[in-house]
């Protein structure tokens, strides 16, 4: 489908435009403040996102192995007392 008056961009050109239009000034401020290159910033952001996704994946898989009955059995063993002063 062709939209009237809209320039079609290829994927690489579209990515470049998104970075330029939406993120360039903020990216520059952050990289200047942190004294890192834009490439270092992008690599760090990608690594952070990968880590978050891997953590989410791990927790979802771990949750599949969980048992509410076992969890409740462990909670039942916790004494019904007030916490110590240092733990309030």
Layout: helices, strands, pairs:
Elements: H1 11-34, H2 38-64, H3 68-76
Q: Would you kindly provide a brief summary of this structure?
A:
This protein has 88 residues and is an all-alpha fold. The chain contains three helices and no strands.
Explain this structure.
- The chain is mostly helical and 88 residues long.
- It has three helices and no strands.
- It has helices at 11-34, 38-64, 68-76.
Q: What portion of the residues fall into strands of 2 or more residues?
A: under 5%
Please state the CA-atom Rg, rounded to the nearest Å: 25 Å
- Count of extended strands: 0
**What oligomeric state is this?**
single chain
Structural class from helices and strands? mainly alpha
Largest sheet: none
Shape: elongated
Helix content: 55-70%
**Mean pLDDT, nearest integer?**
83
Uncertain segments of ≥5 residues (pLDDT<50)? none
H/E series, N to C?
A: HHH
- End-to-end gap: 63 Å
Please tally the helical runs, counting DSSP H or I stretches of 4 or more residues: 3
């Amino acid at each position: 489908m062709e939209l009237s008056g809209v320039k079609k961009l290829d994927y690489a050109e579209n990515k470049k435009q998104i970075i330029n239009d939406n993120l360039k000034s903020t990216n520059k401020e952050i990289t200047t403040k942190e004294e890192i290159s834009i490439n270092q910033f992008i690599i760090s952001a990608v690594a952070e996102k990968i880590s978050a996704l891997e953590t989410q994946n791990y927790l979802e898989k771990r949750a599949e192995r969980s048992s509410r009955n076992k969890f409740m059995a462990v909670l039942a063993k916790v004494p019904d007392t007030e916490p110590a002063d240092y733990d309030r």
